[in-house]
């Protein structure tokens, strides 16, 4: 153990700001001053660069961090394929999970808790588009875990950035760059390559993950909204340096690489980063801090007004992935059908519910820990009972979604569903479409002349 007089930072201590250049040292003087890679870094540490964009990426996109650690990350045995209970590694070499693209509206009952697995073995790919090999697209995972990762195990994904939407429980995430405690109603992002270990201080956890195979999340433009609102930059929290000193015990390093799991051994902790600086780091955000904007006159705005984070494609305004939430909010629109309009979109919409009830689905069936997918041009909108109620409601100001939090992963890509998502999970609702829209009646009355 390091002598405690040097460990001046507490376990969970954050630095605030989105896309802010942060620096942190767990021992004073561990960060070199005025240089990144001195001949001898302070205290005999190794300097290591972790890049999240190409070296030559434009400045406004460039994300890299410098890590000062006891041993470099490269000090491990070769990786061997490893089977996990949720992803098989015995497929032919390039077998990415197969996606079934189907135009039906899909909805899933709540995914089960699973006390028998840890974080790594809890990841089930349910839907996605593109391919981590080509660094295109995204994957959507459901996780449900009840066990801590082994005390000497760490994990990273080479495939993309994990946006973790916690639905149940608390995640204690020890990352190379420090610790994050992710609590109910919080999300967190762990960028590609960062090594971490997940423990469960309050028991079982469950939730959703969007893995972004290309680019990184940014805050949406605010346009005429101005310089504040939606998710404010200062509410994003990055960890501070926190390290262990263990160069004698055996560790297993797990890598998700092209959708498959590999394991390597090393004789030292991966969590030995004494100091770091840069723009490439994990962070968390409390959805309760979202400053929700909406119509204060009439009509229902596009849900893009609720975007927390976006990952743009090369075409500005068109996202590979938007993370959108439906927080508690006031509806005051006059002469307005207040729930979502009926729609067919060129974008696909994967939705989940963290808790409470979503205001477009009064008829039930969209439950916390469940999900829905409305793919490219798949027609959807309020269910029949929501339509009936909203068309006849007295239009006084009402607060909707009290205690509720729905979210959407929206993508320009056509999202396919995996075999697990369609069949093995056994959660697909056979009657979703009929249940939601089958009871819609024509109200058309031709004007009499
Ligand atoms: O389908 C949904 O419930 C999500 C959604 C909400 C909304 O207010 C407008 C469009 C939209 O796709
Ligand atoms: Fe929609």
Automatic annotation (TrEMBL):
> Which top EC class is given?
oxidoreductase
- Binding-site residues for homogentisate, renumbered to this chain: 358, 380
| Key words, A-Z | Dioxygenase, Iron, Metal-binding, Oxidoreductase, Phenylalanine catabolism, Tyrosine catabolism
Q: Where is this region: Disordered?
A: 77-96
- Homogentisate 1,2-dioxygenase C-terminal domain ranges (all copies): 289-444
- Binding sites annotated in the UniProt record for Fe cation: 343, 349, 380
User: Compositionally biased, Basic and acidic residues: which spans?
Assistant: 79-91
EC numbers for this chain:
1.13.11.5
**Chain ranges of the Homogentisate 1,2-dioxygenase N-terminal domain:** 13-287
This entry carries the following GO cellular component terms, namely: cytoplasm
GO MF terms held by the record: homogentisate 1,2-dioxygenase activity; metal ion binding
What this protein needs as a cofactor is: Fe cation
| Pathway(s) the chain acts in | Amino-acid degradation; L-phenylalanine degradation; acetoacetate and fumarate from L-phenylalanine: step 4/6
**InterPro entries per the UniProt record, alphabetical:** HgmA_C, HgmA_N, Homogentis_dOase, RmlC-like_jellyroll, RmlC_Cupin_sf
Say which family it is in: Belongs to the homogentisate dioxygenase family.
Annotated PANTHER family? HOMOGENTISATE 1,2-DIOXYGENASE
User: What's the protein called, per UniProt?
Assistant: homogentisate 1,2-dioxygenase
Q: What organism is recorded for this protein?
A: Pseudovirgaria hyperparasitica
